[in-house]
Design goal:
By secondary structure, the chain is α/β, with parallel strands linked by helices. It is built from 15 helices and 13 strands. It has two domains: about 140 residues, Aspartate Aminotransferase, domain 1; about 230 residues, 3-Layer(aba) Sandwich (Aspartate Aminotransferase, domain 2). The longest helix has 28 residues.
Length: about 400
């Protein structure tokens, strides 16, 4: 098939059959997605049959460890990276904090890092705190009108003092897809490490990290149809250069160096269900096989095309209104289906009104306080965010636009 079978897709998510959610259209996916049945089934199986300490010789423990290893290997296959370069943690926020502490130990006073004000605070705040250790923090600022990051401004910030460049693949407010490969190449040209926050991109398709050229890539499984885990890629050589943050006897393991606390065994094992879902969608639409990475790229294309088809009328609707400020591009090219709008009314209040019409959306600052300030928007006033993914259907987008008419 060349077009996403939306009925098949929705059948893979129990939430669409849940009586309490009937009549509700979900438009706050950027805050956390519905979970696929494959993940739920694996989580249930683990808690029912494998809830023991893994990696011991008895059968239940052996199987528990194998399922955890399976999740790492299969997710790495989708992301096109070595399995040992992938780590799990309780959240992307926690993973970022642990990484920042490792860099704090490795960098020296006078070294510089670059952060942006387009980021969610979780991928900005921990790095900015390195200033307390004498690290120079340089801010790559967004355009105050568009919210975009200009590569020319990055070039002006780069020099041989810069050791790290931290930026988002996609902003959770602007929705624009940043040119990750180009930014990574610019960072590496001055000998800097490129760290990419993929939290707001991954729900729209897990990336080929090797092709992007990132040294570090982070995203959240719970926003990508999975359990509440943070998933992190750290390039092997960099992982071994960074000071170990885990138990000293795990220092030789790249994927254990950044896990200072015991991992959530069941949720790691259930993360393999994210790959089960990708394979199920692929195999339903295509006759050909291929590697996990190839299947993921083909599935991503289906998802992206479907989202673009639904996004176009929503953007057209918002362009036609003179009472909203659409943040980010008003065309579907180079953006994802996370749409934030500034309104005369506080965003949270509008979201509350939309709920009366069966629209589940969010309002506020979404932890992007620096970005809203950079755009001239009072964070306390906030924005309305309308975010959807490939399991959204055209009827729900129509329902959203009618609800906006009634609410605004």
């Amino acid at each position: 098939m060349s077009k996403l079978d939306i009925d098949f897709v929705r059948a893979q998510f129990p939430a669409f059959k849940e009586p309490s959610l009937q009549g509700q259209a979900f438009f706050e996916n950027a805050g956390g997605s519905y979970t696929s049945k494959f993940v739920i089934d694996r989580l249930n199986r683990y808690y029912t049959q494998r809830k023991v300490q893994p990696y011991a010789p008895y059968e239940a423990s052996r199987l528990a460890g194998e399922e955890m290893d399976e999740a790492r290997v299969r997710l790495a296959g989708v992301l096109n990276i070595p399995a040992n370069d992938l780590s799990f943690g309780p959240s992307t926020t926690q993973n970022t904090y642990v990484l920042a502490q490792a860099f704090r130990q490795m960098l020296a006073p006078g070294d510089a890092i670059i952060v942006t004000n387009q980021d969610h605070e979780a991928n900005s705040g921990p790095w900015r705190c390195l200033a307390d250790s004498g690290i120079e923090v340089r801010e790559w600022e967004v355009d105050k009108d568009t919210g975009f990051l200009d590569l020319a401004n990055l070039a002006n910030l780069l020099d041989d003092k810069v050791k790290l460049v931290v930026f988002p693949h996609v902003s959770n407010i602007v929705g624009q897809i940043n040119p990750v490969a180009e930014i990574c190449a610019m960072a590496k040209a001055v000998g800097a490490v490129a760290c990419v926050d993929g939290v707001s991109f991954a729900p729209h398709g897990l990336p080929d990290i090797k092709a992007l050229g990132a040294d570090i890539y982070l995203f959240s499984a719970y926003k990508t149809y999975g359990p509440h885990q943070g998933i992190m890629y750290v390039e092997a050589d960099l992982a071994m250069r960074l000071p170990n943050q885990g138990h000293y006897f795990n220092a030789d393991s790249p994927y254990k160096r950044f896990t200072p606390a015991g991992p959530d065994h069941a949720q790691i094992a259930a993360s393999a269900g994210m790959v089960d879902y990708i394979e199920a969608v692929h195999d339903h639409h295509f006759d050909t096989g291929g590697s996990l990475a190839q299947k993921a790229r083909a599935t991503l294309k289906l998802q992206a095309d479907h989202e673009a088809e639904l996004l176009a009328p929503l953007l057209e609707y918002l362009r036609a209104r003179n009472d909203v400020r659409l943040i980010g591009a008003d065309k579907v090219e180079a953006r994802v289906s996370t749409v934030a709008i500034g309104l005369k009314q506080p965003g949270e209040g509008v979201a509350r009104d939309l709920a009366k019409h069966g629209i589940m959306a969010g309002g506020g600052d979404f932890y992007a306080v620096r970005l809203l300030e950079g755009l001239g928007i009072d964070p306390a006033h906030g924005v309305l965010r309308l975010s959807f993914v490939h399991y959204t259907n055209a009827q729900e987008v129509d329902k959203l636009m009618k609800a906006l008419d009634q609410t605004l």
